[in-house]
Amino acid sequence: MYPYLRLFKTMIIAPFRSPMGVDDQSVLKMRVWFSDIDFYPELNNGRYLTLMDLGRIELAQRTGLLRTVRKKKWGLVVAGASIRYRHRLRAFMPFTLHTRIAAADERWFYFYQYTSCNGKTCSSALVRTGITNRLGVVPVRKVLKSLGVPDWSPHIPEWVEAWINAEKLRP
């Protein structure tokens, strides 16, 4: 089941936190709840990605992107993801979710997200996202102009570029 209570909490609290720029990092404190675990009992692999949705939503809300998306009747879409698991998050453990925009190209934003606990990175993900309208994907330049940062152009790190190129080879 989707964590609607966490989503509502995130969306209610985010406007009371300080605004963020597109270069800033969102940090959310979380805990592994009973509804998040699998048989082992640790955070389920699929739940990691679901909780990462909350980090991207929080960042979008604090940068003003969510307001722009609603105003223009656009939508948000995930167009690909790659996640790596390193350390287990057991039931009821507190952890932190970090989210930032790692790069952008003509069509997509690339979010780097990771979870940490006790100084260790537990998981890390690269998530390709886009903004859509009724015609398809809205160009990143148009989105950035709407946000008031038309000249923002982050360098695409080599590891992100390699992932982009690898995705193009996928059948």
What key attributes describe this structure?
6 strands, alpha+beta, 5 helices, 33% helix, six-stranded antiparallel sheet, 171 residues
Condensed summary:
With 171 residues, the protein is an alpha+beta fold. It has helices spanning 4-13, 45-63, 65-71, 140-147, 158-169, and strands at residues 26-31, 75-85, 94-104, 109-117, 120-133, 136-137.
What do you see in this structure?
This protein has 5 helices and 6 strands; from the N terminus they run H-E-H-H-E-E-E-E-E-H-H. Helix 1 packs parallel to helix 2 (45-63). The chain is globular, with a radius of gyration of 16 Å. With 171 residues, the protein is α+β, with helices and mostly antiparallel strands. Strands 1, 2, 3, 4, 5 and 6 form a 6-stranded antiparallel β-sheet that branches. The mean pLDDT is 96.
Topology:
Layout: H1 4-13, E1 26-31, H2 45-63, H3 65-71, E2 75-85, E3 94-104, E4 109-117, E5 120-133, E6 136-137, H4 140-147, H5 158-169
Helix pairs in contact: 1-2
Instruction: Please state the CA-atom Rg, rounded to the nearest Å.
Output: 16 Å
Shape category:
globular
What is the H/E order? Answer: HEHHEEEEEHH
Which residue ranges are poorly predicted, with pLDDT under 50 across at least 5 consecutive positions? none
- Main sheet properties: 6 strands, antiparallel
What is the average of the pLDDT values? 96
What is the overall number of helices? 5
Q: SS-based structural class? A: alpha+beta
Helix content: 25-40%
Cα distance spanning the termini: 31 Å
Number of E strands: 6
Work out the strand percent.
25-35%
